Structure prediction request, 161 residues.
Amino acid sequence: MRDEERGEGEEAMMFDTSGSKGRRRRHAYPLLAMLLVPLLAGAPARADYPDWAAFAEVGVIEVLTSDEDGDRRETKVWFVLVDGAPYLRTNGSRWLENLRRDPELELRIEDTVYQARVEEVEGDEVLEAVDRASREKYGWQEKIIHPFRTKRPELLLISPR
Prediction:
């Protein structure tokens, strides 16, 4: 196809390269690369389930759930380990409602997304252990937040799917 027969859309999608002996060739590969590289580079890594011991000192993780209307909810939360088991604590949050409807979730920890599920846990003993672990891990931040607790928090134990 000669240049004057080419439509504007086709011209915009092709790049000129000079061939040998003065011939001009057009290639779409550079355009394809420009479109794919940002998409591939921005995708977070995925893994089945975290090695919690490796993340014990991480302060904040993201809980990824789906609202009732299907919208994705991303919530930054604190977590603690009690005897090596990961726990979340919340009070009447939207993401808790989502997890009660569907206990499977994704967790984003340091740019990697992990598959997991949660189970609500009750009991004074486990609550005291989670509170103690939270005071040790989060220090003065926990001391500021704890007095504003208006009701008993819900505890969630994270486990593999």
